[in-house]
Amino acid sequence: MPENQSRYAAAGVNIGAGREAIRLMSPHVRTTYNSRVVGDIGGFGGLFKLDAYRQPILVASTDGVGTKINLAMDMRSCASIGADLVNHCINDVWVQGADPLFFMDYLAADRLNPADAAEIVRGMAEACAAVGCALIGGETAEMPGTYREGRYDAAGFMVGAVESWDLIDGSGIRAGDVLVGLPSSGLHTNGYSLARRVFDLDAHPENLLNRPPELGGATLGDALLAVHRPYYHALKPVRRRIRGLVHITGGGYLENVPRALPNHLQAIIECGAWDVPPLFRLIQEQGEIPADEMYGVFNMGMGMIAITRPQDAAIVMSAMEGSVQIGRIEDRPSGGDAAVLSMEPQ
Q1: Rounded Cα–Cα distance for residues 93 and 91 (Å)
Q2: C-alpha distances in Å from residue 229, one per residue of 68, 90, 214
């Protein structure tokens, strides 16, 4: 066995590093356990009891953090990437009204650094614990020759549950409803390939330490790595006032808003209704990017949209500071688009 292990190590896979990573991860993972978790770390599959629901619909989501992970490794901000991954998936199940139940992760690298892997998992565990979600398992893989040295890929899988009568599916949305935008914390986990190109970060990672005056003293790296904001806790108390939810992720407004609407309705998004944060303006100016492309790539300062009746808008806006009404729902004209950007100042 030692001889075989030595040959495996010579091929680029260190089994001992994997064991050490698990040892370092385990205390963080166990902080997320609750009475519905069955067993402990190390099984072939994670076990979870589905209780407390009478007619549950399971809602599942899987995602990654894209090339944001490259910036995180450059800035040695591993834990933030773990939180990004969980919070993105929380938002994806929450737009259908689901409570996040459990999460599983996948980490892959050319060569595993146990301390880095444990830091990523620590970030995941903290984000899971914040919403009562259990981190019940995952996979850590060394794949020599697949990734660049010192680079990781991270992905995650979340399952949530919602009572069948409480599912948010957009069927209750009506013409005359309004769009309430809830502020993002930054780019969240989308648009990083374009942002990296604009700031030439692949060739000059040291640019992450620049302090553009537009960012008020923050480094470019800190602004770009702001953790993806979860909206579950903020919106849960006003759930009954919400008819639809939109997570503004890849594809920006024009691809994500239509996903929440019935086919006969159209969303008018009033882009002048809120002040676009400085980071987005900096990207647009330095990259000479047209406004319509910016709104098609980035969240532009609004990470989630709640669709609600006009009389409920103020209550929903009170759920999170900085929320603002950013548009309306209308009947969709024949041949019309499901989402329309209005660039006129308000």
Answers
A1: 6
A2: 15, 10, 22
